[in-house]
Amino acid sequence: MTLPLIVAITGATGVVYGVELLRVLKELDQPTHLILSEAAGLNLSIETDYSLEDVRSLATEVYSNKDVGAAVASGSFRTRGMIVAPCTVKTLSAIANSFTFNLVVRAADVQLKESRKLVLLVRETPLHKGHLELMTRAADCGAIILPPMPAFYHRPQTIMDLVHQTIGKALDQVGVEHDLFRRWSGHRDDACHKTGMRLSA
């Protein structure tokens, strides 16, 4: 049996990361349990053409952020981990301080206490010292801090190429196989890829 992955979408800009993560996981036939914060619903209407129902339909199970008695609120409910995409600084702060005032933070806290993977796509810039200290505190508790920082070695052609590289890195952390971007294989091999030439050893 494949354990479900918890996906949380919070109210930071970049809800496309969470939506595309859900779409890819559904395509890969990976079960997902979704928590949408209230602000995430607002950002969906601002940043995308998706409705709340469109996004909910991509997940296997959907929970209200107010449902602190949901299955994912307990460590006895087994999961393969959790990805928060995107993750607001407010959510980061609550996780770093174990302030479990909603289901997103409670489910994240469960991942940490059960030594499961918790990946936070923290979306804010610039970062002041308080933000950095919160990241350090969360990392000290076991969270993986993975801000959506685009890479360019894979020669992205579209915005979605950049999105896929970030969510691909997040999926790597929780052990989900994918082919969302071309991986780095060394500068010699990369030169061959770009020129079509073979380099001798």
TrEMBL record:
Domain of life: Bacteria
Enzyme Commission numbers on file: 2.5.1.129
All copies of domain Flavoprotein, residue ranges: 5-172
Annotated binding of FMN, by residue: 11-13, 37, 88-91, 123
Top EC class for this record: transferase
Binding site for dimethylallyl phosphate: 153, 169
InterPro entries cross-referenced by the UniProt entry: Flavin_trans-like, Flavoprotein, UbiX-like
Pfam families, per the entry: Flavoprotein
Keyword set includes Flavoprotein: yes
NCBIfam families attached to this UniProt entry: PRK06029.1, ubiX_pad
Name assigned to this protein: Flavin prenyltransferase UbiX
Species of the source: Ramlibacter lithotrophicus
Lineage, opening ranks: Bacteria, Pseudomonadati, Pseudomonadota, Betaproteobacteria, Burkholderiales
Gene name of the encoded protein: ubiX
